[in-house]
């Protein structure tokens, strides 16, 4: 039986880019702690309601990519502009990264 | 033109945004606001990290002016300045190099002073925004 070892960083409540800029410390701290503990893990980043992220966040994510003990990064609840940045900066095609878009029900067309 | 100086730490940047710039950005069209907020954060972070080398005692000086046509913002650091390079896409694992590129992607044309330690951008008021801001206009 394989037990998944996952570390979650959830940006819940950080709605504006300024909130998210300050909350980037959450991710920095998690990446540093995992490095210090040398624990193999999957890092799960949940964007929750965040719509845009500043470059400092992408820099921290790049640091996580370089960390050998972080074997996989899962980006959850990815909305449109965040998704564009993920692709723009090359994270989307990195082998360690898996992206899970957030589907908004208001975008779905009811046909019946 | 209002001018404020802050220390070079993330808490000061966040407090400045909340207390001074976000009320100004709120005067822009709603869908333009997140992009404008990101643009200013990129300028401040550039000054904090690259200009003042993350030394919290060094100051960042911000001036701004909101007119019916645009929001003009200038950010100055205590650094020695740098050559005005055209930002290129950094390797995916690089910790830095995305800030000026983000400004460029948003269509802002940063203007540097002669010393290279002050950056100014003009954010024109736009009304033709898509659902997620200007970035999805071509999608």
What features would you describe in this structure?
The complex is a heterodimer of chains A (112) and B (139). Chain A is α/β, with parallel strands linked by helices and 112 residues long. Chain A has a single domain (9-102), classed as STAS domain (Transcription Regulator spoIIAA), CATH 3.30.750.24. In chain A, 38% of the residues lie in helices and 22% in strands. In chain A, helix 1 packs parallel to helix 2. Chain A starts with 5 loop residues before the first strand and ends in an 11-residue tail after the last strand. The model of chain A has no long low-confidence stretch (mean pLDDT 86). By secondary structure, chain B is α+β, with helices and mostly antiparallel strands. In chain B, a hairpin with a 3-residue loop joins strand 2 (59-66) and strand 3. Chain B has one domain (3-136): Heat Shock Protein 90. In chain B, strands 1-2-3-5-4 form a 5-stranded antiparallel beta sheet, covered by helices on one side. Chain B has helices spanning 10-25, 33-51, 99-105, and strands at residues 3-7, 59-66, 70-76, 111-112, 118-124. The N and C termini of chain B lie far apart (37 Å). Chain A binds chain B through residues 16-18, 21-22, 24-25, 51-52, 54-56, 58-60, 62-63, 65-66, 79-81, 84, 88-91, 94, and chain B through 10-11, 13-14, 17-18, 22, 34-35, 37-38, 41-42, 45, 49, 89-96, 98-99, 101-102, 105, 131-133, 135-136.
Summarize the structure.
With 112 residues, chain A is α/β, with parallel strands linked by helices. Chain A is 38% helix and 22% strand.
The helix/strand series of chain A, from N terminus to C terminus, equals EHEHEHE
Number of strands of chain A: 4
State the secondary-structure class of chain A: alpha/beta
Find the count of extended strands of chain B (DSSP E, 2+ residues).
Answer: 5
And the CATH topology of chain B? Heat Shock Protein 90
Number of helices, where a helix is a run of at least 4 consecutive DSSP H or I residues of chain B: 3
Low-pLDDT parts of chain B are 135-139
Strand order of the largest sheet of chain A: 1-2-3-4
- Domain unit count of chain B: 1
Fraction of helical residues of chain A: 25-40%
Mean pLDDT across all residues of chain B, rounded?
89
Bulk shape of chain B: globular
Radius of gyration of chain A: 15 Å
């Amino acid at each position: 039986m394989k037990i998944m070892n996952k570390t979650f960083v959830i940006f819940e409540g950080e709605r504006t880019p300024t909130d998210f800029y300050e909350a980037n410390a959450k991710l920095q701290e998690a990446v540093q702690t995992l490095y210090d503990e040398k624990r193999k893990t999957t890092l799960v980043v949940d964007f929750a309601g965040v719509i845009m992220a500043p470059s400092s966040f992408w820099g921290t994510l790049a640091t996580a990519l370089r960390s050998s003990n972080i074997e996989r990064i899962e980006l959850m609840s990815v909305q449109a502009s965040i998704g564009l940045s993920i692709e723009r900066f090359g994270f989307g095609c990195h082998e360690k990264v898996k992206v899970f878009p957030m589907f908004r029900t208001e975008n779905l067309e009811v046909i019946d | 033109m209002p001018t404020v100086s802050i220390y070079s730490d993330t808490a000061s940047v966040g407090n400045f945004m909340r207390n001074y710039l976000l009320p100004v950005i709120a005067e822009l069209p709603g869908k333009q606001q997140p992009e404008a907020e990101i643009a200013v954060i990129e300028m401040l972070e550039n000054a904090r990290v690259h200009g003042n080398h993350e030394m919290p005692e060094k100051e960042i000086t911000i001036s701004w002016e909101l007119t019916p046509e645009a929001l003009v913002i200038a950010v100055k650091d205590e650094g020695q300045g740098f050559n005005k390079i055209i930002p290129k896409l950094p390797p995916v694992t690089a910790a830095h190099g995305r800030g000026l590129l983000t400004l460029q992607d948003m269509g802002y044309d940063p203007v540097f002073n002669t010393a290279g330690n002050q950056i100014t951008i003009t954010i024109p008021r736009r009304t033709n925004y898509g659902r997620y801001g200007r970035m999805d206009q071509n999608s």
